[in-house]
């Protein structure tokens, strides 16, 4: 066993072996893996081995497609069999909402190049020789890539391919300690000796929490007990003569595939059981739990009705073992914030659908510094330091129980809530607030009208929030609205080199004292990793604001690019306040401060310190509502006072609270983009229009400059556009295909209803050479093509007179 390595991977399951292989594939051969027992000895060995591409996150779906295609490559490289069975998969829809979800997924697949299809009940029966009872089924989604494999053979194929690329694997060698060294490397003490690793990867699976604890890291994951059954031979399968497709029956919370000449069927049952909540014993090995038929009795009865042949089959064996889940069910991948060269590769529950893609993503991250595709959906940094076991356990249980539930775009799941709240929580609750959650924080979505339920109905169509949201939008446009700014990420940058650091890390103009600017933050590839408002309070003090949900992502980037003479503080939860917006916003602000806030004295994009009421505040003249507006920041101790002052003074102007639903409608009037929708690591400034905020002639080498300059010179191949859609009862959400004639040439990034203009609006990408004002297109919403027109002039305040006046 060598004592020094570039990368040490801890854990020999399918994910650890995939990471090891992909590191060698991308050019790093001095890599090593240690495993406490044998390869596959955690969750991998008893997995059902199914794989599929279906995933609501298009980047995850693409990486799952990569994973599936990779298996033949592994077989060709190693000569080992992965036991591949490409049998195709059918996902059933037993209600209109689930069918809407499948039609939306099919629409996404059009521009992703996935050859899926919507099936009728009759087609399902024909494909399964009548072995699926389609009573109550409205339709299904078919994916020819779905299938299953041999978990043991596949993991060993990854391992052999890695060793062929120079990797070393040491078995029966438990890690005892992981100690950080001053140079950023790690001292890893194992049963067979000490290894110095330049990079450390935690792929500990069931033991990832224990491995993380050695480095002082809490990883939010939990093992869940999961069981599936394997039946005796079934005559209909024997007579069929060809393999049976996978069938997912979300209504019955089950998945089914052929195993030998019988069936394998598994369940995501309610109630479910968390296992080893307080830690996985190191003595746990290749063991299974006793079967618990009582837990799945109702699910089995349902399955007998859906798959009648099951009822006549005996049970050959029951596989009941633990798998790890994160609170939202997605993997925990990437550099762990706060630690140098420590990487997570954990909570990959669907290891044979996602393991290859996750290995590729992590290897790209380690070697190139970024991932080819936007990793935010699986980035370990999406959970902050606020995440605790008390939060993780109920969220994981909720996720397990709803794994086959319809995933609505507006759904706010209730487990582990409310958790993190501002001083305004009770006040807004008293004003009929309907709450959402962002990065653990309770955020007002809208205020229900009198007599309306304090709950937004999950749907793919227009929800019961419609009238309340409309009222809030019209209040802003007609008078003045107020909204809490707690859900902005906020950072205080200080020090003698603050401006120098910002000039390097941001692509745009760093403003002079008393001014603010909008600027993208780019990766080396030129991709967007943040869109910021930068406020210059003095030459040595700046305030940055961005997405609240991106704190982990942005904070880690700031750590990785730290500079002597600069201090960056995350003050997101220390500094709060309100934004006021609308044509009477200036009148309101003038009533509560002695400062001169006239248009001449307080211009658009100005920032001033001023006293509002009795509170010391930082006030920025900018608003995401596309209207005249101000963001007023204060410390948390002053928030309730600031609210009282503003609401009392605002009564004569009809001041009305508004939430995120109204905010998202208001921004559409001006075609403003949104982080995670229009602005993400999948896109560039030249594609999205953020290039207008880049300071191209800055005399410094800002991060991403070379790539951005190259794209500027060549010109982007696609650009973000806006559309007015002839929608009926459902608006664009995201990822809907854009048809030009009989071709899918683009996709939507977001959309919604502009209550002020009474129009359904969408944003999305089209090839540059097809963009023209008035271009007629069709946007496929829930499987139905809706006419739309490309528009280039904003629907409100096109000349900016109101916002800037």
From TrEMBL:
PROSITE patterns to which the protein is assigned, alphabetical: PROKAR_LIPOPROTEIN
Keywords from the named record: Oxidoreductase
A UniProt-annotated Pfam family: GCV_T
Gene Ontology MF annotations: dimethylglycine dehydrogenase activity
GCVT N-terminal domain sequence ranges: 424-698
GO CC terms in record: cytoplasm
Residues in FAD dependent oxidoreductase domain copies: 6-365
Domain Aminomethyltransferase C-terminal: 718-797
Domain of life: Bacteria
Entry's family note: Belongs to the GcvT family.
UniProt-listed PANTHER family: DIMETHYLGLYCINE DEHYDROGENASE, MITOCHONDRIAL, SARCOSINE DEHYDROGENASE-RELATED
Protein name in UniProt: FAD-dependent oxidoreductase
Organism: Fertoeibacter niger
